[in-house]
Write a structure and sequence with these properties.
BirA Bifunctional Protein, domain 2, eight-stranded mixed β-sheet, alpha+beta, 439 residues, 16 strands, homodimer
């Protein structure tokens, strides 16, 4: 007998012979009414109503429980009140896995009434809630669209090691790994490796992989392990080409999410930005952005802002939304003191680097990198870095390295902001913070 | 002026106006002949010949070196001896990044004459060799094809944490991470997480991510960090559906690699198997496979084989190649003692699990998993496991879990065997072994 999905449970054609079908899934709700048991079955496609004339029991005579996994056979029958207008008149039902009745988490409950810690503690169950599961359907579309767009521009996907001998950004905020007889660390980013691959002659590369930050703060915008959508590209003049590339990526992601995740967006009452509007997102120098943020803060009688901090990110995004029709703004020309040693200078104080702010949150950082060996050797002491600790970097630049640059988009942050989630942890399947390493 | 790739440097059309183009890339070779400098330029698409009437120098008067990055403008001119039949008559050349002349590794040399340690020590340079870089172009196609095939069957891509509280397979062979105030580990596989996502209602999931094995052995078949192509699927009867799925995946990968990586395959004189032949690959029970391996060993007067060890993997693959036209064989019904506690039993001694052997190497392991909570609780003590240490697993199975199973393909091993590489480390960009954490 053919297995159909809840979504495929459609009205039988008129005059067609009646034909039984099979559905499988989880028991989402049970209702008894007039001796009949109504079971709402949940599968990967949605919900379906099953009508059982007899009370379903398993081989040892135990009754159905919420979240049990069942297989049911029967005839599709029209019923206006059922999801999709069709229900299954069950002739045979089998309990494949009976759920214990002491469910510690109410899967079919209202997640707005559930605390985040409870949702994360009972992740095995909370992910069964269609609204929570929807987050990760959207995330899968984001990842697919990111890769597809870059492949269309001749970028090659790479996979680089996350166990590294040292940090690219200096030695701070690294998780240590006990690696046989010596110390190693978890990579904060594939920075050095993606630059190596550009200089290897691939010229254009991307990577989708975990990145690690041993930061102690516990905020709605931080994860200690996150999925980094990394891009690096050779033969660029300045960071402006990177910003154009990122606009193209975001535009394609918004287009694909709107197209493929309509149901998931509805569950969150989320609207993705117009893909065309992305190209109108402003690009503004750091100093000008800081002035604008302060002007906006003054209007709201808020305190003075000294940096593009979270408050400034919110004000600048809101301004772009009002003025340009999209809550997305690229701030470039960051001061040198805010950027890592490998950032390409624009002048004595400013760099060819940028952040992307989307709906009040920095979702991406990038820039052009130093590619000249002598300029690199000159820069290191200014950052208190010993060239001997940068052996890998030195050999990368010493033997012919094209002008290049890149950026990384935080996958969970982008997911969070597309759906309007309050906390970035909601956009991580099994988030890691200072206290949480399980489940 | 338009930048063209080496590959696009084609003959000017007859009677068309002459038009200068720009190329950028690395200096692969330099030859001086009769006062003219011939430069072979290498870019991401291939090689191009540049003809310079004057000796190229940089702004400080220094001459061209191998591996320098240059930009050249000129007219495309027919020349039978140039790659692609066209060379560039250079009117202007600029050195974007001059390579130091003390190259520690000869990029344009014959890699067959270079030891693996040298290739890995100078990874920044060895990856510039077109034959070595080709490995990772093929790997990118493998990853893309794996994901595309599974998406076409309604599988959802997931990204799960690699920092975990403990190991799924027991506590051995785990790398420890110093995680704030408590111990954590690097995941050996996303086993528990992918099962959770099946039971979450996604039903069909895949993940492309690093996996870690703290194994001390240093062999041509082992990596301590590798890219695992993971699949998990709900509502299956037995491991046979998983084998069919894996055949479909491999068939699609072979088809895509043959189609997209023709040049890369040529560099390695590699031939991918016929995508159709994959479906003829035999499926054989463990005991029968062991008998066959011994019969094959006896023919070669080799010693008796007591297990499906590397020697048996070679003999069985070779047999399948001879008898079925493809060096691929699935061995199922592995004895219980060889498989983890969560493996679904076929009978008292055998399990619903399998290995895939391809060209003499195990590239994949999988099977149906226990999904019944009571059967799981009964199995644990037989493996000396305390149910309290398996809290996550228990809650996964306690509250309704469909029959399910999955497998993982080692991405580097598959790459290795498609190209015929001697050592799996060649198929990892920055391989990690007991001694190596850099570059």
């Amino acid at each position: 007998m053919e297995r159909v999905l809840a979504l495929d449970l459609i009205a039988p054609a008129k005059d067609a012979p009646e034909k039984e079908v099979k559905v499988t899934g989880w028991v989402h709700r049970i209702r008894e009414f007039g001796g009949v048991t109504f079971v709402i079955l949940r599968d990967r496609s949605g919900l379906a109503q099953l009508v059982c004339a007899e009370k379903p029991v398993d081989s040892s005579g135990q009754g159905l429980t919420l979240e049990s996994v069942i297989q049911a056979e029967g005839l599709p029958v029209l019923n206006e009140k059922a999801p999709g207008g069709v229900e299954l008149a069950v002739s045979r039902i089998e309990i494949l896995s009976r759920a214990a009745p002491d469910l510690p988490y109410q899967v079919n409950g209202d997640i707005a009434k559930t605390g985040l810690d409870t949702i994360l503690d009972y992740r095995c169950l909370s992910l069964r809630n269609p609204k929570i599961r929807a987050i990760f359907k959207v995330q899968a579309v984001i990842i697919e669209a990111f890769a597809a767009y870059l492949r269309s521009l001749d970028f090659t996907e790479i996979k680089t090691s996350k166990i590294v001998g040292g940090g690219t950004e200096g030695g701070t905020e690294l998780f240590e790994v006990v690696y046989f007889d010596h110390k190693a660390y978890l990579a904060q980013s594939p920075q050095f490796y993606k630059e190596t691959m550009v200089a290897s002659g691939l010229e254009r590369v991307f990577e989708i992989a975990p990145a690690y930050r041993a930061e102690k703060h516990d905020t709605p915008r931080h994860l200690n392990e996150y999925v980094s959508l990394d891009v690096e590209m050779g033969f660029i003049e300045s960071e402006k080409e990177l910003i154009e590339l990122e606009k193209g990526i975001l535009s394609h992601i918004f287009e694909e999410v709107a197209r493929k995740s309509r149901k998931e967006l509805e569950l969150w009452s989320a609207v993705v930005p117009d893909p065309d509007a992305v190209h109108s997102a402003p690009v503004m120098g750091y100093e000008e952005a800081l002035k604008l943020a302060n002007a906006e803060a003054a209007k709201a009688s808020s305190a003075r802002i000294f940096d593009i901090n979270p408050e400034a990110e919110r004000l600048l995004s809101a301004w772009a939304g009002r003025e340009k029709g999209i809550e997305l703004i690229f701030v470039n020309e960051f001061p040198r003191r805010h950027r890592p040693f490998y950032t390409y200078p624009l002048d004595a104080h400013r760099t060819m680097s940028f952040d992307a702010l989307f709906r009040g949150l920095e979702i991406s950082t990038g820039g052009k990198r130093l590619h000249d060996y002598n300029a690199f050797l000159e820069a290191l002491p200014k950052f208190g870095i010993n060239p001997e600790d940068m052996e890998g970097y030195c050999s990368l630049l010493k033997y012919g390295c094209p002008p290049h640059g890149g950026f990384a988009i935080g996958c969970e942050r982008l997911t969070q902001k597309i759906l309007g989630l309050a906390n970035v942890k909601e956009a991580s399947l099994f988030p890691r913070d200072r206290k949480r390493t399980t489940p």
